[in-house]
Amino acid sequence: MYRHTIDLGLWASPSGTTAPCPPAPPSPMPTPIRCLIADDDPSSQDLLSKYADRHADLDTVGVCEDGIEAANILREKEVDLILLDVEMPEMSGLELVESLSDPPAIVMVTGHEEYAVEAFEVDVVDYLVKPVRYGRFLTATERVSERLGTGGSQDEPSEPTAEEDTTESPHLADTSAEHVFLKDGRRLIRVALKDIQWIKAQGDYMLVQAESDRYMINSTMKELDEKLPSSQFIRIHRSHIVRIDQIKDIEDTTLIIDGKMLPIGPSYQDELIERIQTL
């Protein structure tokens, strides 16, 4: 004979009687991300303010129209995120970021794609091109949450939203086994595969670091991983691909290429060790 115990949601009270189980304590509310909007374009400023107001995790602490006013607000208030226009009077967005010793998370907003490379050199979280659509805005704020540790995994940040796009990309045109053409803006630039050191996902763009230059192309990690020859390149992280013969040093969860330290994701470590020649 088997005896089954069924939990009826009762608990023993101090008096020995039974009573319904007390309700579980409510989950703590997430800490809002304190947001500053700096944009000298009134229509863009209004749109970003509306988007921020609609977002449950954002708390707008200030809105301004130039870098100097933004710097003053940063001295007076705690700010976690700046939605920052690149081109502003007196002090540009890039100049503001470079002037800060410990900047908050930065999402650049601009009408010009050509600033993308320079923006990512100052370690922005994302780069939005005007007019900004709300879906793209949500993607950027999710990346900010991951950077700040308020959501998602920091070890392996999410990739560009176009990751699952399987359409043919014109941004990495194969010309031979030794060279590719990179579509950088309106230019097609012939680059030797042996000169490519590493590739990093940056928002909706891929930053291609070569020995003598760097290029920003609008593609996905999936596309590049499929197009680049697997005998020469390997994916080491959700956001990084490297050329194998450029690796100088590997230690734990990082490797070094030309003095640059790059992360190795846990799910990519075994394949990397298998692919390199060890003694």
Task: Give the fraction of residues assigned to helices.
Answer: 10-25%
Helix-and-strand structural type: alpha+beta
Give the class-level CATH name of the largest domain: Alpha Beta
- Give the CA-based shape: elongated
Question: Would you kindly provide a written description of the structure presented here, covering whatever features stand out?
Answer:
The strands form five sheets. A five-stranded parallel β-sheet has the order 4-3-5-6-7. Strands 13-12-11-15-14 form a five-stranded antiparallel β-sheet. A three-stranded antiparallel β-sheet has the order 8-9-10, with no helix packed on it. It has helices spanning 42-54, 67-76, 93-99, 116-121, 134-148, 221-227, 269-275, and strands spanning 10-12, 18-20, 33-38, 58-64, 81-85, 105-110, 126-129, 172-174, 179-184, 187-192, 196-202, 205-210, 214-217, 233-237, 240-243, 249-251, 254-257, 260-263. Helix content is 23%, strand content 31%. It folds into two domains: 33-149, Rossmann fold; 165-275, LytTr DNA-binding domain (OB fold (Dihydrolipoamide Acetyltransferase, E2P), Beta Barrel). It has 279 residues and is of the alpha+beta class. It is built from seven helices and 18 strands.
Task: For this entry, give a set of tags.
279 residues; alpha+beta; Rossmann fold; OB fold (Dihydrolipoamide Acetyltransferase, E2P); five-stranded parallel sheet; five-stranded antiparallel sheet; elongated; LytTR_DNA-bd_dom; Two-component system response regulator protein; plasmid; CheY-like_superfamily
